Amino acid sequence: MRLIYEGKTKDVYDRGDGAYVLRFKDDVTGTNGTFDPGANTVGLSIEGAGRAGLRLTKLFFEKINAAGIATHFVDADVERREMTVLPAEPFGDGVEVILRYRAVGSFYRRYGKYCRKGQALDAYVEATLKDDERNDPLITAEALAMLGIMGRDEYETVVEMTRRVGALVRDELAGRGIELYDIKFEFGRVGPEKRITLIDEISGGNMRAYRGEEYIEPLRLERLLLE
User: Fold this and answer.
1) Which of 15, 38, 44, 143 is the most buried (most CB within 10 A)?
2) What are the per-10-residue average pLDDT scores of the chain (227 residues)?
3) Architecture of 93-188+207-216 per CATH?
4) Do the beta carbons of residue 53 and residue 82 sit within 8 Å?
């Protein structure tokens, strides 16, 4: 396989037969040794994180595919930490879409003057550009369209898909007595028809989840959902 992209938490390979392979690492995003799904740097390495993240990603992508929502997922080999996917064209150099059910993390840091920490939010969706140099800046639908990154119709499709997928994940967690506070997704265009498709991963490293007042670390979250 040919390495085509080396990422923070995954590497991407061209398999040479029209499919790509994502190889999951044990690195997770954060700062100063503390996990933070919204961070744009690798904060720490947790043994087993890659395999656990792939197991949960496989679980969710299979459920999302079954619900009729387009994803790039084909199959996964958990032991090898590899996921086979359809090639996808990113929006620009990548747009991350965050779905928020509670005012925590960067949302609270920005808007804490107007809300209390942990305040309920109505499935609020926001987008950031993947740009480490500029600390992943927030961007509006209007700016995405003006800069030729994502059309307005595409943005509306992404928001709708984000809320549908988020509800599926939230309900899965709720069945285990766990509340989803926020989750991060990524989308791309797949195939000659450039169909908007959910890509990347859905694991504990992409979300904040709580049981009551207790924050659940990614590896523990994955164990709770997969046991």
Assistant:
1) 38
2) 88 94 83 65 74 93 97 95 96 97 96 97 97 94 98 98 98 97 97 96 92 91 89
3) 2-Layer Sandwich (3.30)
4) no
